[in-house]
Amino acid sequence: MDLRALRLLAATASLALPIGAHAQAPAGKLTVLTSFSKDVTDPFKKAFEAAHPGTTVEIQNRNTNAGIKFLEETKSANQVDIFWASAPDAFEVLKAKKLLQPFKSKATGIPEKIGAYPINEKDGFFSGFAASGYGIMWNERYVKANKLPDPKEWQDLATPAYFDHVSIASPSRSGTTHLTIETILQGEGWDKGWRTVKELGGNFRNVLERSFGVPDAVNSGQVGYGIVIDFFAFSAQASGFPVKFVYPSVTTIVPANVGLVANAPNKVTGEAFIEYLLSPAGQEVLLEKTIRRLPVRPDTYAKAPADYPNPFKNPSLGGKVTFNSEVSEKRTAVVDTLFDQLITFQLAGLKAATKAIHEADAALSKKENADGRAKLKQARDLIAAMPVTEVQAASPEMRAVFTGGKEKSARQAEVEQQWASAAKAAYTEAKARAEEAAKLAR
Amino acid sequence: MTIALDKPRAATRQRIATPGQIALAGAIAVFLALFLVVPVVTVVYVAFTEKGSGAFTLINFADFARTDLFITSFWNSMYVSLMTVALASMFALPLAYLTTRFEFRGAGMIQALGFIPLIMPPFAGAIAMQLLFGRNGSINLLLDDAFGFKIPFMEGLNGVIFTQAIHFFPFILINLSTSLRNLDRAMEEAAQNLGSHGFRLFRRIVFPLAMPGYIAGASLVFVKVFDDLATPLLLNVKDMLAPQAYLRITSIGLADPMGYVISVVLILVSVAAMGLSAWTMRGRDYATVQRGGGGLAQRRLNRWESAAAYGVVLLILVLVLAPHVGLFLLSIATVWSFSALPDGYTVAHYGRVFLESSVFIKNTLLYATLAGLIDVVLGVAIAYLVLRTRLPGRQWLDWTASAALAIPGVVLGIGYLRTFYGVKLPDGSSLASFWMIIVLALAIRRLPYALRSCYAALQQVAPALEEAAESLGATKYRTVRRVVVPLMIGGILAGFVTSFATAAVELSATLMLVQNTSDAPLAYGLYVFMQSPAGRGPGAALGIIAVLLVAVCTLLSNWVIERSQNKRSGK
User: Fold this and answer.
1) CA distance B464 to B302
2) Is residue B529 in some structural domain?
3) pLDDT per residue over B33-49, tens digit each?
C-alpha cells in the first residue's frame, strides 16, 4: 500500500518537475529503523519534515539487536532507508553483513575525533551524529535514605558501602554496556580490567536485560546506583527525577550513529536526513531537554546550557582511553559470554563471596593479621582468575565457537558450561578463604 | 482426551467422520501448518543440527542435560509453575464459588474485576508492581518507616510466583465460573435430597462436576507460567527456562542452537502438561443433559456469612488489582521516585497520548477482535472434531494448537518474517508487511486459550442432545449451529474474551512484525514510550487506556451474550 502511494508520488513528481530535478529533491516517505525512544525521534522527525516539505518520516522502533535481525530477514525486499542507533558495534555488524551502503556527508566543521574515538567510519558506511559517554548515575533520595557516599570512579563502586546497591545491564543485551565493559578492559588491561569488573559485579544488586531498565530502576528508587550512558541520566534530570551523574576518568566518549541501508528505497531522502542530522540546525535539536546528547559540532556547544559537558573543551572526558573498535569487535561475543557466565548467572555465588571478603576485610582492619591478609588476597585472586587469556579470547578458535553453524568447533554450550562451573567452584572456594581470614582476625 | 468416545451409546458415531468433518479437519490442519508449524520449524530446526556440518543430531539436547544452568532453570520453572497454580487457585476458588453459589450483590462486577489482572500491558505492569511491592516500593517504604522491616514480595522465585499468580489467576476464575454456571442443578438437588450439604456438597458434588473448567484453567496457568518470559525477566530472575531461551535467541546465542533447544523443551513440556490434564479427565463423563437452569441454586447468606464473604472477596480484589492501581497512579504522577506516593499529580500525560492514541486504539480493537474471532471459530471446530468424531489423528490438531502456547513470541515473529517476507501481494508489497499478518500471529498465539475454554464447554454438553436433534432429522451442520454452539456459548464467550483481552496487550511477536506506525497496536506505542524517563507517565497513561478499552469491550460482549441468552430462554 505504502509502496503504491510512493510510486504515485514519484509519478506525480516526475510530471511536475524535469527528470533531473526530481532525482535530487528529497520527497516522499522515509523509513527510519531506530532504537531511540520517542523523546529523541519525535523532535527530529518534526524538524526534518519542516526543513524538507513533502517528506514524511516513518519511525520504526526496535531495539538494536532486533533491528539488525529485522534488516537481515528482510533484505530480499528491503523497505528501510536509515538505520539509526547508538552502539558503533551494531553498525560494524551491519557493515560486515553488507546491509549498509556508504555515504559521505558534505557537512563541514565536524572534527575527525571526539575524545579518542573517530567520529565517522573510515569508508563512510556510517557517521557519528552525537556523542555519549558512560558513567555512574544515582538516586539522591535513595542514597540519602541509606546514608551512602557519592561515587567518582568505577573502583568506588567496588567498595563495601555499595554492596547490593548497584545495577547494570548485561553487555550481551545492551550495546552501550558492552562498550563500558570493553572500555574498562582496554583502559586497565585484560586481567586487571576483569578484576575490576568482577569486584564491581560482587556489589551488583542485579544484572538487567534491557539498557533502559537500569535508569528506570534508579529513577524509581529500586536501586541506588546504575552504570549507564550519560543521556539516560541527563534526560531523567530534565524530567525532574532526583538523580545525579558522574563520568569516571576511565570512560570513553563514543558516537551514536546513523547509516544508509543498502538498497534503500528512498535513497535521496535518506541522504538528506543524514545531512540534516549533521547540519548546525540538526545538531541543535540534540540540546533539547528530552534528548540531551553531546553534539559532534564544537560550535553547537555555544548554544548549550551552562553546565553541559563539552568533550571538545574538557580533555578529561574520554581522553584517557584510546578505544580500539577492532579489538573490541574481534572479541565481542567472548567478552559478553564471559560476563554472563561469570557474573550474570553466578551472581548469587559471587555476591556471597564478595560479602565474605568485605566482612573479612573489615575484621582485619580492626585487628591486623598477616595470615588473614594472605588468605584474603587468595580469596580475591580466586575471584579475579579468568578461564581465558586475552590472546585466547581473540583467537580464531574461540571466535568460531560463537558463530553458530558455519564452522566446526567446540559447541557454545560446552564452553559455557566449563566457564560456569569453574567460576562457581572458584567463588565457593573464595568464600571459604575469606571466612577463614575473618576467623584469624577474631 | 477421549471422554465420550469409548462409550457404548456413541452409536450414531460409528462412521469415522462425514466428508464435511474431514474437509474441516483438513482446512484447520492446513491453517495450523501454514501459520504455526512452518514458520516455527524454519527457526527451530537448528536445534537438531550439528555444528559445522548441519547434519541431524541430538547432541545439543545432551548439552542441555549437561549444563547446570539449564537443569537448574528447568526445575525452577517447574517449581514456579506448580506453586503459581496453587496460589492462583487460592485467589480464584473463593471468587468463583462465592459469586456463583450465593446470592451476591455485585457478583457480575466482581467477576468483571477479577478478569482485569489478565489485561496487563507489558513493561507498565511490572514497573507499577515494583513501585508498590518492590524493595523500595510504597508498601516496603511504609513498613520500613513504621516498623523497621521490609517484606521481600518481589525477590527471587517467590516474587515470580506472587506476580504470576496475580496476573494469571483469571484463567482459573473464568473457566471455573463458567463450569459452575453450567452445572445441572438437578445434580445438586439430588445430593441435597440425599442429605449432603455445605462443604461436603461442594467437595463431593459441585467441585468434581466443575472439574473440566478448573483443569482447563489450571493447565493454562501452568503452561503459561512455564513459558512466560516477561515476568521473570522484569523481576530479574534469569535461571528459569523461558528467560534462558529468550536471552539466547535475542543476543549472543542468535547463531547457537541452544536457544532453540530450550524452545523445543518448552514445547514438549507444555504439550505434556496439556496431555496430562486431559489424561486426568480420561474415562469420566462431565456432560449433563439439562440446560437453562442457570447453574447452581443460589443460596442467601446470613449477615455474618455475608460480611465474611465480602471481606474475603474484597481482600483478594485489592491484592490482585494493586498493579492497576499502581499503573493509574503512575499515569497521573509527575515524579515518583523512592517515595510511597508520587510527588505530585497531573493529567498532562493523558494529553500527550490523546492525539496519537486514536490510531493505536483502532488497530488494537481491530486486531484483537479479529484474532479473538479466529480463535473461537478454530477452538469450537477443533474441540468438536476431537470430542465428537473418530477421525484418526484428530488429537494432533489439539496438540499442535496447544503447542503455540510454548512458542516464544520472538521465535514466531522471526519465523513469520522468514516465511512470508518473500511472498508478494498483488500490489508488490510483501505479505509480511500486511497488517493481517499481525492478526494471524496474535490469533495463533492466543488460540490455546480459546481452545481450552471451548473444549471444556463442549465436554459439558451431553451427546444425547445432539443425537436427539439428529434423530429428529437435523443435519450435522444444523445440529452444531442450533444445538451445540448455543449450549457452549458461555465457554465460547470466555474463550473469546480471554483471547481478545490478552491479544490486545501482546507485544513480543508484534514488535517483530510492526512495520508502520499506522499499523501499530497500543502495546507497541506503549513500548516506544516506556524507553525514556519522560515517557514513563505517557506510557502508563496509554496502558490505562488499553486496560479500560479491553475492560469495556469485555463487559459489552458479556452483556450482549447474556441478553441474547435471556431472550432465548424466555426470561
Assistant:
1) 40
2) no
3) 999 999 999 888 888 98
What's the ipTM? 0.79
Contact B130 A404 (CB under 8 A): no
Q: Which residue has the cell 485489592?
A: B318
Distance between CA atoms of residues B286 and B140, nearest Å: 47
Indicate the pairing of strand A113-114 with strand A117-118.
antiparallel
Count helices and strands (H / E) in chain B.
Answer: 26, 0
Residue B524 lies in a domain: no
Q: What is the pLDDT of residues B345-378, one digit of tens each?
A: 999 899 888 877 788 889 999 999 999 999 999 9
Instruction: Decide if B99 is inside a domain.
Output: yes
Residue of B nearest to A240 (CA): B335
Q: Note the pLDDT tens digit of each residue in B110-123.
A: 877 888 888 887 66
Shortest Cα distance from A342 to chain B (angstroms)?
12
Contacts 24+ apart (CB under 8 A), B418-426: B418/A73, B418/B39, B418/B42, B418/B43, B419/B38, B419/B39, B419/B42, B420/B39, B421/A73, B421/A74, B421/A76, B421/A77, B422/A76, B422/A77, B424/A77
Residue numbers in chain B where pLDDT is lower than 70: 1-16, 122-123, 251-255, 283-284, 288-297, 561-562, 564-571
Q: Which residue of A has its CA nearest to B418?
A: A73
8 Å CB contact of B427 and A1: yes
Residues 6+ apart with CB under 8 A from B302: none
pLDDT tens digits along A254-267: 889 999 999 999 99
Examine residue B154 and state whether it is found in any structural domain, yes or no. yes
Give the predicted TM-score (pTM) of the model.
0.82
Q: Are B250 and B212 in contact (CB under 8 A)?
A: no
Give the list of residues 6+ apart from residue B266 with CB closer than 8 angstroms, or none. Answer: B226, B227, B241, B242, B245, B406, B408
Tell me whether residues B251 and A236 touch, CB distance under 8 A.
Answer: no
Q: In total, how many domains does chain B have?
A: 1
For residue B336, what is the domain's CATH number? Answer: 1.10.3720.10
Residue B135 belongs to domain spanning: 76-243+295-345
Judged against a pLDDT cut of 90, whether residue A213 lies above it is answered with: no
Are B532 and A290 an interchain contact pair (Cβ–Cβ within 8 Å)?
yes
